[in-house]
Write a structure and sequence with these properties.
The complex is a heterodimer of chains A (about 300) and B (about 240). With about 300 residues, chain A is of the alpha/beta class. Chain A contains 11 helices and 13 strands. In chain A, α6 links the parallel β6 and β7. Chain B is mainly α and about 240 residues long. Chain B has one domain. Chain B is built from 10 helices and no strands. Chain B is globular and about 60 Å long. Classes of the chains: A alpha/beta (about 300), B mainly alpha (about 240). Chains A and B meet through α2, β5 and α3 of A and α1 and α4 of B. Bound molecules: adenosine-5'-triphosphate and magnesium ion. The site of magnesium ion has 5 residues of chain A, from α1. Chain A: It is a peripheral membrane protein. Chain A: Keywords: Antibiotic resistance, ATP-binding, Cell membrane, Membrane, Nucleotide-binding, Translocase, Transport.
Chain lengths: ~300, ~240
């Protein structure tokens, strides 16, 4: 069942169109990713969902509520972690949670929440003395303190080191396992691929595709690449003529063969028949990266 | 609401420079000035009062100006810049409560400061308590609110925390000057003193209620007017992000 419905969302800043007719739905209990390059309009989209910005066009429903008209009620059902938001330098973690808990009728037990987020020993630490990863976890805690049905997390792992990032991913999965629907904004492929049940690809304010990670990848037709260095010169047409092969490129001594089906087997058979030894043979599956390039004509990560 | 005030109060106590300037400084300044014999000798040129008696109202101005025109605008602008106010808007509580809490914290700090000033003045230098207590309390609160409204206006219009600090400092200096903090008011030319009478936080009304009779209702009226006008404009033009 859909808990968030966005239809034809349009948002313009001054004269710049930031979001241009975006529609998608988020099902209850899933981790829904919003993926796109910098400036794509991801934050603007979720801020409209959170009721922090009023759309210039389109309709939004969150758990049956209109985020602008039913603001007050929405606040009790939706928790948000903003892309840019700090706490006062000298507030202690426990104080912040206790304070925010007091804003809700039926808040979560903040001590338990801190323990779950691995911050139990930081309750008396001032906010300014926390590491980047700890600050992000406090942010997640504050987004969850009101026992929301939906949590919107905007770029929660940006600026974290790989270990902290993986820890945070585990946390998001735990949150989902408690029944919370998670909307996750990110521009990390790996993050989206690993966490999300479904992903909305956004580029330049427009929705490019909504699908599961596997579904998006399958749109590039199971394309694969085989890379190797032939030990002796090789007639490239032998490979190019294979039905499985769509393209052969030469990069210095390296050959890159792109194709579909049982590409690896076809290529190695030709090499064996011609008694050519292949050094550094590698095969690469198409990933979300390739899907993104195929769908938008450009690379996601800078 | 009580919890927000309580938290903001704790945050205030953790900023040593704020506590020193807003709460302790006027009493310290009084002690330093009072240590100079000439300043605690009755002066025939000045109604046979001592300098320190006449200077008490200016010391109250120091507290009010610091809280309303330094602490308030910089804290609020910083909260906006760091996204503290925005995070509040994601909860069921409106971020305006945080601004109200700031003003309440300032009232508490201001009361503490003035009480400390009175105690030091009374015990050490034998300075009278305000002769018209009710008038003094009303003037003090109106002075506080009017400067707070101006401070919020600065926070509302300044593009960022740095600018807010800069603009607020200019207003702060003017208020301190007209409040007779830099130069005692009896040394200022008459026309400057007349301006000062009407400017927030109402140094003349503080002076009247301390040394003489009731404050002039016109002075209080002007303070109330400034509070309402600046407060309304600030509320209308305030940006939460
Ligand atoms: N408050 C604003 N005023 C004017 N323009 C804005 C504002 N916020 C965002 N924009 C513009 O709108 C576009 C979309 O911004 P948005 O923040 O939604 O992108 P994003 O996908 O979240 O990017 P990022 O990955 O960098 O966070 C950008 O071109 C940005 O410059
Ligand atoms: Mg963003």
């Amino acid at each position: 069942m859909a808990i968030i419905e966005v239809e034809d969302l349009v948002k313009t800043y001054d004269r710049k169109v930031a979001v241009d007719g975006v529609s998608f739905t988020v099902d209850e209990g899933e981790i829904f990713g919003i993926l796109g390059p910098n400036g794509a309009g991801k934050t603007t989209t979720v801020e409209c969902v959170e009721g922090l910005r009023s759309p210039d066009g389109g309709t939004i429903r969150v758990d049956g509520l209109d985020p602008r008209r039913d603001r007050a009620e929405l606040r009790t059902r939706l928790g948000a972690q903003l892309q840019q938001s700090d706490l006062p330098d000298r507030i202690r973690v426990g104080e912040a949670l206790d304070l925010y808990a007091s804003f809700y009728r039926d808040p979560a037990d903040w001590r338990e929440l801190l323990a779950r987020l691995g911050l139990a020993d930081r309750a008396k630490t001032e906010y300014r003395k926390l590491s980047g990863g700890q600050k992000q976890r406090v942010s997640i805690a504050l987004a969850l303190i009101g026992k929301p049905k939906v949590a919107v997390l905007d770029e929660l792992t940006t600026g974290l080191d790989p270990q902290a990032r993986r820890d945070t991913w585990e946390l998001v999965e735990q949150v989902r396992d408690t029944g919370v629907t998670v909307v996750l904004v990110t521009h990390f492929m790996e993050e989206a691929e690993r966490l999300c049940d479904r992903i909305a690809l956004i580029d330049a304010g427009k929705l490019v595709a909504v699908d599961s990670p596997a579904g998006l990848v399958s749109r590039v037709d199971g394309e694969q690449r085989v890379k190797f260095r032939p030990a002796t010169p090789l007639d490239v047409t032998l490979l190019a003529d294979l039905p499985e092969v769509t393209r052969v490129e030469r990069h210095g001594p390296q050959l890159i063969v792109t194709g579909t089906g049982n590409l690896l087997h076809a290529v190695t058979s030709v090499l064996a028949r011609n008694q050519i030894v292949a050094a550094d043979l590698r095969i690469e599956q198409a990933g979300l990266d390739d899907a993104f390039i195929r769908l938008t004509g450009r690379k996601l990560s800078e | 609401m009580l919890k927000i005030v309580n938290t903001e109060w704790k945050l205030f106590l953790r900023e040593p420079s704020m506590v020193v300037f807003a709460v302790l400084f006027p009493a310290i300044l009084l002690s330093v000035l009072g240590a100079i014999p000439a300043l605690r000798t009755p002066d025939p040129n000045f109604d046979n009062q001592r300098f320190i008696d006449a200077y008490m109202s200016s010391l109250v101005v120091v507290t009010l100006a610091f809280l309303g025109l330094n602490k308030l605008p910089t804290t609020v602008a910083t909260y906006r810049e760091k996204g503290v106010l925005r995070r509040f808007s994601t909860t069921p509580v409106h971020p305006a409560r945080l601004l109200v809490a700031q003003v309440l914290v300032n009232v508490i700090a201001g009361v503490l400061s003035v009480v400390l000033l009175m105690v030091v003045g009374r015990v050490v230098f034998d300075i009278d308590l305000p002769h018209h207590p009710l008038g003094f309390v009303v003037t003090f609160l109106l002075g506080m609110l009017s400067l707070s409204a101006i401070g919020l206006l600065v926070a509302a219009w300044a593009p960022n925390a740095r600018a807010a600090g800069g603009w607020a400092t200019v207003v702060f200096m003017l208020v301190m000057f007209f409040g007779g903090v830099y130069l005692p008011r009896f040394l200022l030319p008459d026309f400057l003193n007349t301006i000062g009478e009407y400017l927030p936080p109402g140094v003349e009304a503080l002076q009247d209620s301390w040394l003489g009779a009731a404050p002039d209702p016109v002075h209080l009226g002007v303070l109330a007017l400034v509070t309402v006008a600046a407060g309304t404009v600030a509320a209308k033009s305030f940006r939460w992000e």
